[in-house]
TrEMBL record:
Protein name: Putative Se/S carrier protein-like domain-containing protein
Domain Putative Se/S carrier protein-like: 8-75
Pfam families the record matches: Se_S_carrier
Source species: Alkaliphilus metalliredigens (strain QYMF)
Length: 94
């Protein structure tokens, strides 16, 4: 049996300034947002991304546009399965 990964979504920005503005605006609107380094699946360069609820993509893009926050891109990323020794021994994750 192979476990299927789950997804999380991030917004990337052209500048740190826009990432910080997005965080402030979304938090004021009670939208869960978490700043994080840009995931390696997206880019190997340094930068800040905002983890957001995938189901709110269109709403969040609209909010950022209305407030002049420039978005580089929206990414849906599969979480990597991290299997431990017990999982390998039981054959849960291959």
């Amino acid at each position: 049996m192979i476990k299927m990964g789950t997804f999380y979504c991030v917004l990337t920005f052209h500048t740190t300034h826009h990432a910080l503005n997005a965080e402030v605006i979304l938090k004021k609107k009670s939208i869960p947002v978490k700043l994080m380094p840009v995931p390696r699946q997206v880019s190997s360069s340094c930068g800040i991304a905002a983890e957001i609820p995938c189901s709110m993509k269109e709403e969040l893009l609209g909010i950022c546009h209305r407030y002049g926050v420039e978005i580089d891109d929206f990414h849906s990323i599969e979480k990597e399965n991290k299997c431990g020794l017990l999982d390998k021994m039981l054959g849960i994750i291959k």
